[in-house]
Request: fold
Amino acid sequence: MLTIPDNTPENRDRNTARFNFRTTERIKQTVEHAAAMLGQDTSTFAVTAAYERAIETIRAREVTHLKPEDHQAFFEALEHPAEPTDKLRHAFSQHKEKVSKR
Reply:
Protein backbone atom coordinates (compact mmCIF):
# COMPACT_ATOMS: atom_id res chain seq x y z
CA MET A 1 0.00 0.00 0.00
CA LEU A 2 1.22 3.48 -0.79
CA THR A 3 2.08 5.88 1.97
CA ILE A 4 0.47 9.29 2.15
CA PRO A 5 2.57 11.69 0.07
CA ASP A 6 4.34 14.57 1.75
CA ASN A 7 2.75 17.63 0.18
CA THR A 8 4.62 20.26 2.14
CA PRO A 9 5.58 23.21 -0.09
CA GLU A 10 9.27 22.28 -0.23
CA ASN A 11 8.41 18.71 -1.40
CA ARG A 12 5.87 19.59 -4.10
CA ASP A 13 6.76 19.98 -7.73
CA ARG A 14 5.09 22.79 -9.58
CA ASN A 15 2.15 21.50 -11.63
CA THR A 16 2.96 22.43 -15.21
CA ALA A 17 2.11 19.28 -17.21
CA ARG A 18 -1.44 18.70 -18.40
CA PHE A 19 -3.78 15.79 -19.09
CA ASN A 20 -6.79 16.32 -21.28
CA PHE A 21 -9.29 13.50 -21.71
CA ARG A 22 -13.00 12.90 -22.15
CA THR A 23 -15.19 10.64 -20.04
CA THR A 24 -18.84 9.80 -19.54
CA GLU A 25 -21.11 11.97 -17.45
CA ARG A 26 -21.56 9.09 -14.97
CA ILE A 27 -17.79 8.79 -14.38
CA LYS A 28 -17.40 12.56 -14.10
CA GLN A 29 -20.18 12.78 -11.49
CA THR A 30 -18.72 9.85 -9.54
CA VAL A 31 -15.27 11.43 -9.46
CA GLU A 32 -16.71 14.79 -8.44
CA HIS A 33 -18.75 13.14 -5.67
CA ALA A 34 -15.75 11.20 -4.32
CA ALA A 35 -13.55 14.32 -4.45
CA ALA A 36 -16.15 16.31 -2.54
CA MET A 37 -16.36 13.58 0.10
CA LEU A 38 -12.62 14.00 0.70
CA GLY A 39 -12.75 17.79 0.55
CA GLN A 40 -10.61 17.88 -2.59
CA ASP A 41 -11.13 19.57 -5.91
CA THR A 42 -11.76 17.23 -8.83
CA SER A 43 -8.36 17.77 -10.44
CA THR A 44 -6.44 16.98 -7.25
CA PHE A 45 -8.55 13.89 -6.63
CA ALA A 46 -8.21 12.59 -10.21
CA VAL A 47 -4.48 13.22 -10.43
CA THR A 48 -3.84 11.62 -7.03
CA ALA A 49 -5.94 8.57 -7.91
CA ALA A 50 -4.26 8.17 -11.30
CA TYR A 51 -0.79 8.61 -9.80
CA GLU A 52 -1.42 6.06 -7.02
CA ARG A 53 -2.75 3.54 -9.57
CA ALA A 54 0.27 4.16 -11.80
CA ILE A 55 2.68 3.51 -8.90
CA GLU A 56 0.80 0.30 -7.98
CA THR A 57 0.89 -0.88 -11.59
CA ILE A 58 4.60 -0.18 -11.97
CA ARG A 59 5.45 -1.93 -8.71
CA ALA A 60 3.32 -4.96 -9.61
CA ARG A 61 5.11 -5.32 -12.96
CA GLU A 62 8.67 -4.50 -11.88
CA VAL A 63 8.94 -6.49 -8.66
CA THR A 64 9.29 -10.24 -8.70
CA HIS A 65 8.17 -12.14 -5.62
CA LEU A 66 9.69 -15.56 -5.03
CA LYS A 67 8.84 -18.27 -2.58
CA PRO A 68 11.75 -18.98 -0.21
CA GLU A 69 12.74 -22.17 -2.05
CA ASP A 70 12.59 -20.38 -5.42
CA HIS A 71 14.61 -17.49 -3.99
CA GLN A 72 17.30 -19.91 -2.86
CA ALA A 73 17.38 -21.69 -6.24
CA PHE A 74 17.54 -18.38 -8.13
CA PHE A 75 20.52 -17.07 -6.18
CA GLU A 76 22.22 -20.45 -6.27
CA ALA A 77 21.99 -20.35 -10.08
CA LEU A 78 23.43 -16.83 -10.11
CA GLU A 79 26.32 -17.75 -7.84
CA HIS A 80 27.04 -21.09 -9.54
CA PRO A 81 25.88 -20.92 -13.15
CA ALA A 82 25.83 -24.04 -15.28
CA GLU A 83 28.44 -24.47 -17.98
CA PRO A 84 27.23 -23.21 -21.36
CA THR A 85 25.95 -25.89 -23.69
CA ASP A 86 27.04 -26.28 -27.32
CA LYS A 87 23.69 -24.80 -28.37
CA LEU A 88 24.29 -21.71 -26.23
CA ARG A 89 27.82 -21.28 -27.55
CA HIS A 90 26.46 -21.53 -31.09
CA ALA A 91 23.77 -18.94 -30.31
CA PHE A 92 26.39 -16.52 -28.99
CA SER A 93 28.54 -16.94 -32.06
CA GLN A 94 25.50 -16.33 -34.29
CA HIS A 95 24.71 -13.23 -32.26
CA LYS A 96 28.25 -11.91 -32.71
CA GLU A 97 28.07 -12.49 -36.46
CA LYS A 98 24.60 -11.10 -37.07
CA VAL A 99 24.01 -8.44 -34.43
CA SER A 100 27.33 -7.23 -33.10
CA LYS A 101 28.65 -6.31 -36.55
CA ARG A 102 25.90 -3.75 -37.17
